[in-house]
């Protein structure tokens, strides 16, 4: 049996490929280490990374130009919304170069649209739906026995077989340690210079207890939060510390604050057993109290990302955020005063928003910057596949407006991509915008643009390379 | 994109900061503002503006002596305060009217 090549979703920043670290692919490679290590993660050359691109076709050609496909019978493409159109072009080029190679897709975007993708794109042979490790382990075990097809494998949708979903992994401690993925450390060293502050990513939790209307997290990872045990997380950080010498970690997980008592227990464990390590995470603020910040600091936490989303409580209630804005802002202000590096993000362009809502969100962005957050971003609402804004017919999507910054990278959509979107709007809802009856769209774009300009100026002024001690 | 609107929002933040005389200026010397349309005709084109209490930008552009720009600490930047020249008030008024339009 030949090998499997995994290709990360390309992320173009300033016309060049950014050295992003896609943990999901390394997690699959780590699974592969238990089956004879038949999995490679594409490692682009410095020359390829240094090149400039003007369209998806050129990007795909360049990525594949340096790849010898002869050792592989499968190429797996990870997909996120901003690179999905690039991934489709790559799939097409792979089939041109090596028609016998199977192309599999996975990741959040492909998972939400698996049946539609297989129907629309013959160059994609299978879609891995949801989290991939258990499914991938079964596939690798079959391949080790000489079975190459995917028929009957739960969690994989193909054109031939019946699809049955796979239950997510119940205990995240069963995942292999990420540094058992052969390519992980090299990829991290490549990405490190671009990371501010510099941290090593470690997956800590999956799933989200929130049901925010704009977010696809709970649809992909599930609505129940699964956490690695404190002992496992500390052991993983210790291993990485030994390998890299770095003491600062980015704990990946959308709802690391849930349940609150587990977060506080983790902080106690860190203070007791790993007081030399520092970490940042994502926090949903609904359950965090100002007094919890002391426990977080003592436990080594030095920063967090908060999705504030809007300055309008009415909007927060309508999207199901489940927070009281004033309480959330109180925690943020206190955290900044204590020295935490707080990142915030906001969204504009909700279908019901008024000009007043828009102005207040801009004012909040400015206030957060003035108050001293590490960064604040304002995105235009991105109707991600599978979310209410993409599916509910009450929300009318238009594709003739400036898309959310989440949906596009720095490579302008070319004629081919535009044609794809026109032909398959359901597969590219992220490029659409929800009609907002009470807003001029130019005002939405101006708020997003002015916010980004302020953020860039602010960011250039001070940007610590490491977490505070 | 409505660039006037974007300019207006940037100016709004600077006007607000100026009112509060907030120090340190959170955007450092990097916030380069386009001249608002109402005063564009009164000034040489493509001038950038920041309030005089903001730090001077790292890069400056030399201009001929004896010009209007001599009066300013950083020649590339037109500096002015809330209490300062007429242009500041024009900018503040423009922000107010543009935002309520």
Mean pLDDT of chain B: 61
Cα-to-Cα separation, first versus last residue of chain A: 50 Å
Care to count the β-strands of chain A?
Answer: 18
Rg over C-alpha atoms of chain A, rounded to the nearest angstrom: 22 Å
Q: List the uncertain runs of chain A.
A: none
The backbone outline of chain B, from C-alpha atoms, is globular
Strand order of the largest sheet of chain B: 1-2-3
**Major beta sheet of chain B, specifics?**
3 strands, mixed
Structural class of chain A: alpha/beta
Largest beta sheet of chain A, briefly?
A: 6 strands, mixed
Strand content of chain A: 15-25%
Global geometry of chain A: globular
Helical amount among residues of chain B, as a percent range?
25-40%
| Total DSSP E strands of chain B | 3
Give the largest chain-chain interface (CB within 8 Å): A-B, 23 and 20 residues
Strand content of chain B: 5-15%
Record the SSE blueprint.
The complex is a heterodimer of chains A (469) and B (101).
Chain A: E1 3-7, E2 12-13, E3 16-17, H1 23-32, E4 39-41, H2 46-50, H3 56-65, E5 72-78, H4 84-97, E6 102-106, H5 108-112, H6 114-120, E7 126-128, H7 133-144, E8 156-158, H8 184-191, E9 200-203, E10 205-206, H9 217-221, E11 226-227, H10 230-244, E12 248-252, H11 260-273, E13 278-282, H12 292-298, E14 301-309, H13 313-318, H14 325-338, E15 341-348, H15 355-371, E16 375-380, H16 388-391, E17 397-398, H17 415-423, E18 433-434, H18 441-461
Parallel strand pairs in A: 1-4, 1-5, 5-6, 6-7, 9-12, 12-13, 13-14, 14-15, 15-16
Antiparallel strand pairs in A: 2-3, 7-8, 10-11, 17-18
Helix pairs in contact in A: 1-7, 3-4, 11-12, 15-18
Chain B: H1 3-20, E1 33-34, H2 37-40, E2 48-51, E3 77-80, H3 86-100
Parallel strand pairs in B: 2-3
Antiparallel strand pairs in B: 1-2
Helix pairs in contact in B: 1-3
How would you characterize the overall build of this protein?
In chain A, strands 4-1-5-6-7-8 form a six-stranded mixed β-sheet, with helices on both faces. Chain A has a six-stranded parallel β-sheet with strand order 9-12-13-14-15-16. With 469 residues, chain A is α/β, with parallel strands linked by helices. In chain A, α15 links the parallel β15 (341-348) and β16. Chain A is 39% helix and 16% strand. Chain A has helices at residues 23-32, 46-50, 56-65, 84-97, 108-112, 114-120, 133-144, 184-191, 217-221, 230-244, 260-273, 292-298, 313-318, 325-338, 355-371, 388-391, 415-423, 441-461; strands spanning 3-7, 12-13, 16-17, 39-41, 72-78, 102-106, 126-128, 156-158, 200-203, 205-206, 226-227, 248-252, 278-282, 301-309, 341-348, 375-380, 397-398, 433-434. Chain B has helices at residues 3-20, 37-40, 86-100; strands at 33-34, 48-51, 77-80. In chain B, strands 1-2-3 form a three-stranded mixed β-sheet, with helices on one face. In chain B, α1 (3-20) packs across α3. The model of chain B is unreliable at 57-84 (pLDDT under 50). The chains are: A alpha/beta (469), B alpha+beta (101). The interface between A and B is medium-sized, with 23 and 20 residues.
């Amino acid at each position: 049996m030949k090998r499997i090549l995994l290709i990360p979703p390309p992320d173009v920043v300033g016309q060049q490929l950014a050295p992003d670290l896609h943990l999901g692919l390394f997690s699959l490679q780590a699974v592969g280490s238990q089956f004879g290590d038949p999995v490679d993660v594409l490692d682009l050359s410095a020359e390829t990374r240094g090149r400039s691109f003007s369209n998806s076709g050129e990007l795909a050609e360049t990525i594949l130009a340096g790849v010898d496909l002869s050792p592989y019978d499968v190429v797996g493409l990870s997909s996120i919304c901003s690179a999905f159109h690039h991934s489709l072009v790559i799939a097409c080029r792979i089939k041109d170069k090596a028609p016998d190679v199977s192309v599999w897709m996975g990741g959040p975007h492909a998972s939400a649209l698996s049946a539609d993708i297989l129907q629309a794109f013959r160059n994609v042979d299978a879609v891995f739906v949801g989290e991939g490790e258990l499914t991938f382990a079964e596939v690798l075990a079959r391949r080790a026995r000489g079975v190459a097809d995917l028929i009957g494998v739960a969690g994989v949708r193909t054109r031939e077989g019946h699809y049955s979903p796979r239950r997510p992994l119940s205990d995240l401690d069963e995942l292999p340690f990420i540094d058992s993925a052969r390519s992980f450390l090299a990829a991290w060293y490549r990405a490190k210079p671009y990371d501010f502050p510099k941290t090593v990513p470690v997956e800590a939790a999956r799933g989200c207890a929130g049901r925010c209307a704009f977010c696809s997290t709970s649809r992909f990872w599930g609505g129940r939060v699964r956490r690695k045990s404190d002992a496992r997380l500390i052991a993983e950080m210790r291993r990485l510390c030994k390998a890299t010498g770095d003491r600062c970690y980015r704990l990946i997980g959308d709802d690391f604050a849930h349940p609150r008592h587990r977060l506080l227990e983790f902080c106690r464990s860190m203070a007791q057993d790993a007081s030399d390590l520092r970490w940042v995470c994502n926090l949903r603020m609904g359950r965090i109290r100002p007094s919890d910040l002391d426990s977080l600091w003592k436990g080594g936490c030095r920063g967090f990302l908060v999705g504030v989303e809007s300055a309008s409580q009415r909007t927060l209630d309508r999207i199901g955020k489940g927070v009281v804005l004033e309480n959330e802002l109180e925690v943020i202000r206190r955290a900044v005063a204590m020295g935490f590096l707080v990142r915030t993000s906001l969204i504009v362009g909700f279908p019901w928003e008024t000009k007043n809502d828009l102005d207040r969100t801009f004012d909040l962005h400015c206030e957060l910057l003035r108050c001293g957050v590490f960064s604040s971003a304002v995105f235009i609402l991105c109707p991600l596949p599978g979310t209410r804004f993409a599916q509910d017919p009450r929300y009318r999507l238009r594709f003739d407006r400036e898309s959310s910054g989440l949906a596009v990278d720095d490579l302008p959509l070319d004629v081919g991509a535009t044609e794809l979107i026109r032909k398959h709007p359901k597969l590219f809802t992220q490029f659409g915008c929800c009609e907002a009856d009470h807003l001029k769209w130019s005002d939405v774009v101006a708020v997003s643009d002015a916010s980004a300009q302020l953020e860039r100026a602010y960011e250039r002024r001070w940007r610590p390379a490491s977490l505070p001690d | 994109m409505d660039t006037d609107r974007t300019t207006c929002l940037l100016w709004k933040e600077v006007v607000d900061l100026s009112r509060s005389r907030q120090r340190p200026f959170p955007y450092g010397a990097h916030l380069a503002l386009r001249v608002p349309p109402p005063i564009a005709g009164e000034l040489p084109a493509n001038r950038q503006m920041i309030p005089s209490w903001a730090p001077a930008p790292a890069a400056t552009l030399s201009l001929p002596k004896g010009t209007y720009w001599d009066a300013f600490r950083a020649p590339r930047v037109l500096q002015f305060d809330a209490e300062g020249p007429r242009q500041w008030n024009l900018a503040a008024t423009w922000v107010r009217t543009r935002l309520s339009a």
